[in-house]
Amino acid sequence: MTHVVVLTGAGVSAESGIPTFRDANGLWENHKVEDVATPHGWLMDPTTVWRFYQQRRRDLQGVKPNAAHEALVHLERRLVDAGHEFTLITQNIDGLHLDAGSKNVVEMHGALRRFRCQKCKHTIEGFEYLDDELLPCDNCGWMMMRPDVVWFEEMPKEPERYETAVRHCNVFASIGTSGEVYPAAGFIQSMFLRSDPTTIYHCNTDPALVQYKAMGIKEFIGPATEQVPLMVDDICGLVIS
Ligand code: BV8
Ligand code: ZN
User: Fold this and answer.
1) Is residue 25 classed exposed, middle or buried when 0-12, 13-18 and 19+ CB atoms within 10 A define those classes?
2) For the whole model, what pTM was predicted?
3) Of 237, 167, 179, 169, which is closest to residue 203 (Cα–Cα)?
4) Is the beta carbon of 231 within 6 A of some atom in ligand 1?
5) Distance 167 CA to ligand 2 centre (A)
6) Lowest mean pLDDT among 81-85, 176-180, 189-193, 236-240
7) How far apart, in whole angstroms, are the C-alpha atoms of residue 39 and residue 147?
């Protein structure tokens, strides 16, 4: 039995029209991370942070999964039907993997579709509220719900799930991530330090780091909607006899 782990980043959603973070015109080009994606930023200026996320929620309306998301749903079905294990770990907060139909998904950086109350932990799912005014908690009355996303210096969600998957996988595929944010970046690096044989895939518009190439990484270079279906075929050929 083989355990396949796929890690995705903003690049897998780029062709659905969602800006990445570090490409030209990326999200971090127009905002200072520390102002809008840290607990300190939220404490100092909650309205600016709230408006940053409400705009991303509004931009997400009508956005659909693309062929890369759909290919990963197909991969999961093929592997599970053949008795293998599959875990999809995503850094993205757009929810497109779940919308596409992926089942075993770890949204390690949270979700744009959800608000959370810091006082009573009450959560609100969905996109009914898209205004720029801060939203009081309808459970305890606390003055402002927060986006249920993981900011820098905050603990990612469900660490036991992603750590177990990364530790036990035999095939690891990284799709559309710059590999600059930890702990996800550490997953990729840890694959090259393992003693047991692991097949590693890199799917990105940019080639893999030179040092990774030397270690026999399987590269699928180009847009995710074109390359992920090809990579999925390769993984199925490798794993499903
Ligand atoms: C934490 C949610 C600890 C919000 C985000 C060492 C160890 C541990 C921590 C650290 C460390 N060093 C530094 C840290 C701290 C920090 C960190 O990593 N900093 C970086 C900048 C160095 N990490 C943290 O703070 C993390 N927390 O470590 O907690 C802890 C422990 C115990 C107790 C308490 C705390 C939390 C990090 C999460 C931050 N939140 N997002 C939001 O989205 O607004 S991060 C943000 O970056 C997004 O989630 C995004 O997904 C993520 C990574 O970016 P990418 O997805 O890779 O996107 P990017 O634009 O960079 O790249 C896109 C790629 O796609 C490119 O390669 C491009 O070539 C490619 N591409 C583009 N188009 C396409 C494509 N590929 C294919 N097809 C295309 N069409
Ligand atoms: Zn509350």
Assistant:
1) exposed
2) 0.96
3) 179
4) no
5) 36
6) 189-193
7) 11
- Which of 6, 21, 90, 209 gets mutated to test ligand 1 (max ligand atoms within 8 A of its CB)? 21
What is the model's pLDDT at position 31? 83
158 conformational bin, left if phi > 0, alpha if psi -120 to 50, beta if neither: left
74 a catalytic residue? no
Tell which atom from ligand 1 comes closest to the C-alpha of 15: 80
- Give DSSP secondary structure letters for 85-117: EEEEEE---S-HHHHHT--SEEETTEEEEEEE-
Distances (CA, A) of 217 to 72, 155, 180, 198, 211: 19, 29, 18, 10, 10
Nearest CA to ligand 1 atom 22: 181
For the CA of 21, the closest atom of ligand 1 is 60
Which ligand is nearest to the Cα of residue 116, counting in written order? 2
Residue 216 CB coordination number (10 Å): 9
If you count DSSP H runs as helices and E runs as strands, how many of each does the chain have, helices first?
10, 9
The answer, yes or no, to whether any atom of ligand 1 lies below 6 A from the CB of 181, is yes
Q: Can you give the pLDDT at residue 192?
A: 87
Measured in degrees and rounded to the nearest 5, phi and psi for residue 155 equal -75, 125
Distance 143 CA to ligand 2 centre (A): 8
pLDDT at 210 over 90: no
Distance CA 208, CA 218 (A): 9
